[in-house]
Design brief:
Radius of gyration: 16 Å
Structural class: mainly alpha
Order of helices and strands: HHHHHHHH
Number of strands: 0
Largest sheet: none
Helix content: over 70%
Shape: elongated
Distance between the termini: 14 Å
């Protein structure tokens, strides 16, 4: 593992940060990228967790950077999701964000919160905690797999 603070490590951490902002990569994919670069996993987890949370306020706020008000047609799926989130509240957002699969994470949590009208501050807190859980699970998994090999 690379431990020294070299220009190469800094560039690799920048790649990890910006890859974690991407919708389907998020912190899960960026931890794998950090492992590929042989970076230390805990600092990489912190950087990727911070990067994955960057788009959440823009999505929750809406407007130019988020979803339009009527961006999704009313359908049975939207009503089902709205009922589930109104029933379980921010726990549903936390769980949807904490699942460490690609494509499920902060973007999905923020979009669900936006579409269902959950309080923005509570939604952001739930998404943040779910992101931390997903990042921790991914760091633990990658550390375990790389220690085996």
């Amino acid at each position: 593992m690379l431990t020294a603070l070299s220009p190469q490590n800094i560039w690799h951490m920048i790649v990890v940060f910006f890859s974690s902002i991407l919708p389907f990569c998020e912190s899960k994919g960026s931890i794998l990228i950090a492992s590929m670069y042989r970076l230390r996993l805990v600092p990489s987890g912190i950087v990727s967790s911070a990067g994955a949370f960057v788009p959440v306020p823009f999505i929750l706020k809406g407007g130019k950077f988020g979803l339009p008000e009527d961006g999704v047609k009313k359908s049975g799926k939207r009503e089902f999701i709205k009922n589930m989130i109104s029933r379980y509240g921010c726990w549903a957002l936390l769980l949807a964000t904490a699942i460490p699969f690609t494509g499920v994470g902060t973007w999905l949590g923020a979009i669900l919160a936006r579409l269902t009208g959950v309080d923005k501050k509570r939604a952001a807190a739930a998404i943040f905690v779910g992101n931390l859980i997903a990042t921790f699970l991914m760091v633990a998994t990658v550390a375990g797999v790389t220690s085996i090999f």
